[in-house]
Amino acid sequence: MFQSKRLYHFVIFLILSGLIPIPSTVGAEASSSVVIAQIAASPLHALVLTESGEVYGWGSNANGALGDGTDEARTEDLTKAQGLPAIKAVSTGYLSSYALTNEGELYAWGRNYYGQLGGGGASWGITLPRKIEGLPKLVQIEGGNEFAVALAASGGSIHLRCQFCRAAR
């Protein structure tokens, strides 16, 4: 277990900068192995998307950023985000997480203080993934610091932020 947040962040930096290689498989639940398809990281937490479309996370779980229904940090083991269908892409914001399905549906969880998870209303945290209703089919999602931007299949962009705490188009 990392004894210092600085050390943890430094290790994440080393991994993401390529100075520490990322293994091609990661041990997961029931001691099986999964193949990593994508990694998304914020300063405080990271998500791993497997080839089979499952989402795992580690790091700070403040505001439910890992999607496992708790707010307990995971610094040694991966935890699986609960209740998601098969996912094709993930992104992270500041303690918020986003997952995009093959059908172009968006799921979001974690910090929602500024309404960056869409769906109306702001709250400190949503600990389980929830589908954001009322959006067109999406092809890409990127989380930012207290906001997210998505690209619609039609070519338009969707901005999730607190502008009357709903999805702004």
Describe this structure in words.
There is one protein chain. By secondary structure, the chain is mainly beta. It has one domain (5-168): Methylamine Dehydrogenase, Chain H (7 Propeller). 7% of the residues lie in helices and 46% in strands. The chain contains one helix and 13 strands. The chain has one helix at 5-16; strands spanning 25-27, 33-41, 45-50, 55-59, 74-80, 87-92, 96-101, 106-112, 123-131, 138-143, 148-152, 157-161, 166-168. The strands form three sheets. A five-stranded antiparallel beta sheet has the order 1-2-3-4-5. The chain has a four-stranded antiparallel beta sheet with strand order 6-7-8-9, with no helix packed on it. Strand 11 and strand 12 form a beta hairpin. The radius of gyration is 15 Å and the shape is globular. Mean pLDDT is 78; it is low at 19-31 and 163-169.
What key phrases describe this protein's structure?
disordered C terminus; 4-stranded antiparallel β-sheet; mainly beta; globular; 13 strands; 5-stranded antiparallel β-sheet; 1 helix; 169 residues; Methylamine Dehydrogenase, Chain H
